[in-house]
Design goal:
Length: 375
């Protein structure tokens, strides 16, 4: 056991006697003592003078009675007796919040965050209600990656975009940001219709990975050379029965990677399971992609669908489709983005067939996809 966890019994008893005498003296002057409950707490502390829980019990009772400095002393002793005991530091944090000592409260709670994740939600709720700004919290998290990421996820869940923006910058400064958190942050920004903020947040986070995005190409990772992040502003792949979709490092048109879709011949598949969201402004654009296919059956093949998910009347176009076997083929479509459109969706798609022999089988590869403004 660490030396600073337990005091010598004689010292603890002496301190208890001092506090008891002070409380008795106050009682002689007519101030509230808490009656029998206070006597029980004092007796419990006499019997377990090295227990940080007993010190907290008495401290909370003293605070309730308005004896703030005596309560402070009790909590100080509790902290010394239990330097690594989260329940004690949680009680100390709440004491400081009640005393309106925000900085001390954050210090105590941050200590808990470093030890265990069990109290995360309670602590973050305290911060929401009792701390004026996330900028007061973040410095106390220091090098605590786990707590910093958990706090950021809490802010995202509360849809606190302003606070989340500050926490995001703190995460990036400390190299705590990752692809999963970036994807979750973008989801919130897009949900809140903050498209003007989403693109620079994403591009800045990507750094050298962004390539020509968004300067000339509004689609990120159109060559699939970067691992998929799961973000809305990257290619999102969702599972579907009857097809498998993944990056493949063989037979790309350029570079090393392309997107490979294998249709298994078990479904008349409505395929819309590889897509990227694009934040685009009003104007004329050219969409271009390259695809190759092998033994792709049925009369409905593979193509791209570019549309406004909020209003198909503003934009809803398809490229030509490929069926059977084809070497790398360019698929191109001119698009006009009208006023009112905030987002467009670029989907790889296959529509169901009306034919009797409609269960699609075969393979397709996609590469070098772009959406560029017409100047």
């Amino acid at each position: 056991m660490q030396k600073d966890i337990l005091w010598p019994a004689a010292t603890c008893i002496a301190v208890v006697l001092v506090i008891t005498a002070a409380i008795s003296l106050r009682g002689q002057h007519g101030e509230t003592l808490g009656g029998g409950k206070r006597d029980e707490l004092q007796e419990a502390l006499r019997q377990e003078s090295a227990s940080p829980y007993r010190w907290c019990d008495l401290g909370e009772s003293l605070l309730e009675d308005g004896q703030k400095e005596k309560a402070r002393y009790c909590f100080q002793q509790a902290e010394k007796l239990a330097p690594n005991l989260p329940p004690i530091w949680m009680r100390a944090a709440f004491f400081h919040f009640q005393m309106e000592e925000t900085d001390a409260a954050i210090q105590c709670s941050a200590r808990v965050l470093k030890i265990v994740p069990d109290y995360d939600q309670v602590i973050f709720n305290y911060y929401d209600r009792l701390v004026p700004s996330v900028e007061e919290v973040l410095p106390h998290l220091e090098d605590n990656r786990r707590a910093g990421q958990a706090y950021f996820r809490h802010l995202l869940g509360a849809e606190a975009t302003g606070s989340a923006a500050k926490a995001w910058e703190w995460l990036r400064e400390h190299s705590f940001a990752d692809d999963t958190l970036a994807a979750q942050y973008l989801d919130l920004l897009l949900k809140q219709r903050m498209t003007e903020e989403a693109v620079p947040v994403w591009a800045s986070y990507l750094g050298s990975r962004r390539g020509d995005y968004p300067d000339s190409n509004l689609l990120f990772n159109g060559d699939f050379e970067s691992p998929l992040t799961g973000a809305a502003l990257d290619w999102r792949i969702t599972a579907v029965r009857g097809a498998e979709t993944a990056r493949e490092d063989q037979g790309a048109r350029s570079g090393q990677w392309s997107l490979h879709i294998s249709f298994q011949g078990s479904e008349d598949l409505s395929y819309r399971h590889a897509a990227q969201t694009v934040c685009a402004r009003t104007g004329e654009y050219v969409f271009q992609a390259y695809a190759r296919t092998r033994d792709l059956t049925t009369d409905e093949g593979i193509r791209f669908h570019i549309f406004d998910p909020e209003s198909s009347a503003r934009l809803d176009v398809y490229t030509e489709q490929l069926r059977g076997t084809n070497d790398w083929t360019r698929l191109e479509k001119r698009c006009r983005i009208r006023a009112g459109t905030r987002l467009i969706l670029v989907q790889v798609c296959r529509t169901p067939s009306w034919k009797f022999d409609n269960k699609i089988q075969g393979e397709a590869w996609l590469d070098d996809i772009s959406l560029k403004a017409v100047h």
